[in-house]
Amino acid sequence: MVEQDDIKRQMTLYFIFAAAMIGLNYLIQKLNQLVAPLFCQNFGTLDFFHIFYCSIEPFNMPELIGSIFAVGITYLIKFFLDKYIVFKRVGKKLKETSIEFIKYFGFAILTTAENIGIQFLLTNFLNTPLEISFIIALSIGYLTKFFLDRKYVFNI
User: Fold this and answer.
1) Cβ within 8 Å of residue 144, ≥6 positions away
2) What is the pTM of this model?
3) How many separate domains does the chain show?
4) How far apart, in whole angstroms, are the C-alpha atoms of residue 129 and residue 136?
5) DSSP 45
6) What domain range includes position 10?
7) What radius of gyration, in Å, describes the C-alpha atoms of the chain?
């Protein structure tokens, strides 16, 4: 009974933090949309910044870089929330934490592929509205990631 209560507590916190990170990801990307024009206006003449941040041909680099920053920041924050608050792992060794983070990030890549696949199948083959397929795919992906993190990353 205690273990079941612990899993419920962990799962509740895990999903609350996941929702918070989705919101933070969105805010970072919106902030990037506001900052990018100002940044490019002042530094866009420098080749490095023009090519890797300000260019919109052939790809919208400000959007891509904003997405990368948003995902990177939220993954780092979520990792530490999960490690220290959700799963209460107090390992202090850098090597141990680094190995956990590599596993955590690897599972994030796998479950992101799972999310994309589920959403693709739902919207393209079952004609599910985007919002519903998005919610279903994220829910399944986060549930999968919770159990992978719990068992293989934080060894509980």
Assistant:
1) 111, 114
2) 0.82
3) 2
4) 11
5) T
6) 1-88
7) 19
pLDDT single digits (tens) 19-54: 999 999 989 989 988 988 888 888 878 888 778 778
Domain identity same for 98 and 142: yes
Q: Which of 41, 58, 88 is the last residue before a domain boundary? A: 88
| Type of residue numbered 24 | L
CB neighbour list of residue 7: distance below 8 Å, 6 or more residues apart: 150
For the record, the structure tokens of 52 come out as 């890797």
CB-neighbour burial class of residue 48 (10 A; exposed 0-12, middle 13-18, buried 19+): exposed
45 and 16 part of one domain: yes
Signed CA dihedral, 66, 112, 19, 90: sign only: negative
Residue at which a domain ends, from 47, 66, 88: 88
